[in-house]
From TrEMBL:
One of its GO terms (biological process) is nucleotide metabolic process. The keyword Cytoplasm applies. It comes from Paraburkholderia humisilvae. This is dTTP/UTP pyrophosphatase. Belongs to the Maf family. YhdE subfamily. Signal peptide: none annotated. The record marks R20, T89, Q173 as: Important for substrate specificity. GO terms for cellular component: cytoplasm. Pfam families: Maf (PF02545). The lineage of its organism: Bacteria, Pseudomonadati, Pseudomonadota, Betaproteobacteria, Burkholderiales. The active site is at D88. It is found in: Cytoplasm. InterPro entries: ITPase-like_fam, Maf-like.
């Protein structure tokens, strides 16, 4: 009598435009296809903060909402069924949420708050399996200590354009590395996709890699 086996999947849908997350999936050896928001979707509305909401609650809520939106997008597309991976990253200090800077001036203001102090980088990861069932989302918390950096140095960094599009106005894998004295936590989590937690979720969703 033949034995039954669970179906596995050769790729995951990645619902993120982040080149860092794509790079990190390649590092794991995971094949992916992009599942990006349609032009008619209001992706920014999902990232709106609630009054009094903690950064930890915020990043988990946004990640789950993005996963729900991605699943609806896949169902409407008619593409082949496969698990979906979603992540969301935020930076927090003094109970404030530091999202993506509007421009270079906003980036300098954010970085000035971080200079000479510790802050937290929070990355939530969610996976929806191929049948549409969400796996429990996970949260990776890391602490980062910035050196006491001059405003001129921060302005030069901001003028490079690197802070734009990044939570907290910096990328740990880029030029901002010169400001970072110490990291306690997950380097890949600070980049935007904690590999240990992500690998466990993808295996639970039966992704082959």
């Amino acid at each position: 009598m033949p034995t039954s086996s669970k179906v596995s999947y050769p790729f995951v849908y990645l619902a993120s435009q982040s080149p860092r997350r794509q790079e990190l999936l390649r590092q794991l050896g995971v094949r992916y296809e992009l599942l990006l928001p349609r032009p008619d979707e209001d992706a920014e509305a999902l990232e709106a903060e609630f009054p009094g909401e903690s950064a930890h609650a915020y990043v988990m809520r946004v990640c789950v909402l993005k996963a729900q939106a991605a699943r609806a997008r896949l169902e409407a597309s008619g593409h082949a069924a496969a698990p979906i991976l979603v992540a969301d990253t935020t930076v927090t200090i003094d109970d404030a949420i530091l999202g993506k800077p509007r421009d270079a001036s906003d980036a300098v203001a954010m970085l000035s708050r971080l200079a000479g102090r510790d802050h937290e980088v929070l990355t939530a990861v969610a996976v929806v399996d191929a049948s549409g069932v969400p796996l429990p989302a996970t949260l990776c918390t890391s602490r980062v200590r910035f050196a006491a950096v001059t405003r001129d140095a921060l302005a030069r960094y901001a003028s490079s354009g690197e802070p734009l599009g990044k939570a907290g106005a910096y990328g740990v894998q880029g030029r901002a590395a010169e400001f970072i004295e110490h990291i306690d936590g997950s380097y890949s989590g600070i980049m935007g996709l904690p590999l240990f937690e992500t690998a466990a979720l993808l295996r639970a969703a039966r992704i082959d890699f």
